Amino acid sequence: MNLMDIYQELKDDIHVIEQELFRSIDSHYPLIEEAASHLLKAGGKRIRPVFVLLGGKSGVYDIERLKHVAVALELIHMATLVHDDVIDDAETRRGKPTVKAKWDNRVAMYTGDFIFAQALSRITRLSDPRVHQILSKAIVDMCVGEIEQIQALYQWNQSLKTYFMRIKRKTALLMAISCQLGGLVCNAPEPVVRALYRYGYYVGMAFQITDDILDFTGSEKQLGKPAGSDLRQGNITLPVLASFRNPAIRDAIINEFKSGSPDMPKIINLIKQSGGIHVAKTIAQRYLEKARRSLEDLQSVYSKKTFIQITDFIEQRTY
Amino acid sequence: MNLMDIYQELKDDIHVIEQELFRSIDSHYPLIEEAASHLLKAGGKRIRPVFVLLGGKSGVYDIERLKHVAVALELIHMATLVHDDVIDDAETRRGKPTVKAKWDNRVAMYTGDFIFAQALSRITRLSDPRVHQILSKAIVDMCVGEIEQIQALYQWNQSLKTYFMRIKRKTALLMAISCQLGGLVCNAPEPVVRALYRYGYYVGMAFQITDDILDFTGSEKQLGKPAGSDLRQGNITLPVLASFRNPAIRDAIINEFKSGSPDMPKIINLIKQSGGIHVAKTIAQRYLEKARRSLEDLQSVYSKKTFIQITDFIEQRTY
């Protein structure tokens, strides 16, 4: 089963959103359009828009309102990808050259700003001040998360708590408010909106942990970059932190980095041997369980069923 | 006369805004705070907040509403400064080391994003959807302007129209909406709000042209960077474009750049000899005249008087 099969029933509405996404980056300026549509065409899972739509199913489903939220959230996600590429010195994303690699850092930064601004412009079509407040607060938190992530690079002594806080800001928060805002703009009952937020949060945490596991277990072909790239760039994720419970492995890994030219295949093996991957998988599964339990309060049979399928998909995903 | 003398009557309200600006960047994260407050402490003319307050004088002046607009607009201005520093590889701004130079590009980019997000968060305190629409549309345009500016670097054949469009997006637009939104949130009559917008736009155009002139006529000490820095970095401004009316001077300047190591003092002299500075000054003065004429519809004697003083200040400014 792949994600698009799960979304089948939402196909027409996703198509509407896809068109609006392209319209949003239609600036009449060739450089911007090329840079932004380049990213848009690279695709992506469109999980956030789907979460918005599914959230809406718990209220009085209204695609005319939902589409603005969905487009805004996907654009915000895209803007962060563009800015992450500037940071990461990433040369490819989703197997395609990044905006940064194809043009340069400056254009990438302003393309990110532009996409971000379009997201905000889009959300002004909704007058409910709660939407703007939730969104802007989340964006502030996401920015804090990005700066924290820089600060945490190569910080071998960071706590698990730091890691969880970081991935909340980096990934889970936007997924949480995707579900939440979908419910909110369709006037779903308050406890349901809260349950939607929780679902998005838990599933987002699991999603990011899975990403962090795949960085070690995936092949270069699947990942579109060499395995261990996150750690190579100083990003210390859950499998690494879990492996550090074994002091010998911790020392061996840190020493590899201190040498100046870390042997990544060796480090990846150490992490695998340590059981760090297994620990991370267990934690991801616990989040997925919590996500499933959050769905109990939902009334919409369709959205409950679909959210469960998405949860299962994230549990099994290998790319 | 300096700007702060002009603002005397607004002193208390500017103080409120200054405090709120500091509160806005109070993130409890040392790195962000240091990076952002560093910029905040460097000061600046706070022209945009003053424009907001003066705009408010044309309606039912309400500092509780005006302060949110003023803080948001100044934060947006600051965010663009931070991102410009990433672009410009600038090592100093207002004589102090830039965020970029002191930390690095990545932190600068996300600090800009953070300040920007705080601006948006701040503006959600106002529920009038027109405010959000005007603001988000302006931000989109500003981002387009930034990308256009990159595209226009070293484009010797660009038209005057391109230049004027660029400085509108870069500078005049934010000043225009500062005046406009001040009037709008205090319920000034519609024709007055439009006049306020026009004033801000015209004065903003003159302000940027003056900046572009000073880049050639100022001393390194006044500018905080060597004279001719804009052109050195490929930014072709009005004095340069005006000097190109003389084909011999045009060829001489372009040839200097083609040589790979342009002799900036020589180029600056060529531009001065060409009369390019004089042409630019004349055009700036025309904009200032239009700005003054826009004030005719204003009812508030105080704001009219103050706007005129600011216009005179911009006419005479040498730094």
Automatic annotation (TrEMBL), chains A, B:
Q: Which cofactor does it need?
A: Mg(2+)
Q: What's in the keyword line of the UniProt record?
A: Magnesium, Metal-binding, Transferase
Q: GO:BP terms for this protein?
A: isoprenoid biosynthetic process
Q: Tell me the InterPro entries matching this sequence.
A: GerC3_HepT, Isoprenoid_synthase_dom_sf, Polyprenyl_synt, Polyprenyl_synt_CS
Q: Which Pfam family is one of those matched by this entry? A: polyprenyl_synt
Question: Which Gene Ontology molecular-function terms are recorded?
Answer: metal ion binding; prenyltransferase activity
Query: Which NCBIfam families does the annotation name?
Result: GerC3_HepT (TIGR02748)
Its family? Belongs to the FPP/GGPP synthase family.
What name does this protein carry? Heptaprenyl diphosphate synthase component II
Tell me which species this is from. Answer: Caldalkalibacillus thermarum (strain TA2.A1)
